[in-house]
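Can anyone check this?
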Amino acid sequence: MKIKPISDHLQENLSILFVGYNPSLRSGETGHHYASPSNRFYRILFQTGLTPRLYKPQEDGDLLQLGYGFTNIVSRPTLTAAEISPDEYREGSVILRDKIQTYHPKVVCFVGKGVYEQYSDKRGMPWGVQPQPVVTGVIEYVCPSSSGLVRMKLEELVAIYSGLLAYSQAERST
């Protein structure tokens, strides 16, 4: 099976645009964001209350209805982010900045500190809201990667991602 970049899920007036490093091989095979069985992304969103139920990767497009979009700093699927070249990051950073300026989401959530470092050319930032956004008028929020390769406990990830609730327009039901 040929592995290719996956489609962004973008529209104007997003509450949150989630930005990953790049698609996993599994995402490239299926065409869906955060599709690796070890990725905790959708569990994190549900446990924070950002989604009213646990979504599956194949439902990633449905999250547009909740005001959530998806893109990556690099579009080429790889096994790990370590396979991404500096040139790919530089090019991806320019493309990402253009997407953010075009769609102007309320919040851009960087799913991985390294994603934000590559995008902003800044280092040593804390989790959460960044004080000096690259794109004026957009809240830049840094979270840990949801990859199963990240050794943080799910509860720690959920606590950091919970800060996004203040910016969510998702309809939550019990």
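Reply from J.R.: I decoded it. The helical segments are 25-30, 41-48, 86-103, 113-120, 154-161.
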